[in-house]
Fold this sequence. Notes:
The protein is mainly alpha-helical and 88 residues long. The chain has helices at 30-35, 44-67, and strands spanning 17-19, 27-29. It has a two-stranded antiparallel sheet with strand order 1-2. Strand 1 and strand 2 form a beta hairpin. It is rod-shaped. 0% of the residues are buried. The model has no long low-confidence stretch (mean pLDDT 80).
Amino acid sequence: MTIPGNILRAPGTTVRLIAAEGDPGLVATARQLKTEHASWKVFVLPSALLAVLAALVTALVVRRRKSRGSSGQLALRLPRDFAADSPF
């Protein structure tokens, strides 16, 4: 087994290892776990993608509202051959 870490240990040295519950082959030293912390860099790409999505949705909403006209209602266009006295 390879012991994680960057310290050269002499043969026969006792090392306290901690194994993951679900995968006993995944081990770490107590010192490694003590100094481990989450990196903020893992949130950069998802945050950027979320900002792009928000900008696209905002642009789409603004574009649709502008196409409706100043009253904010959809304009109904009838075909030219539509009879004025038609029940439809």
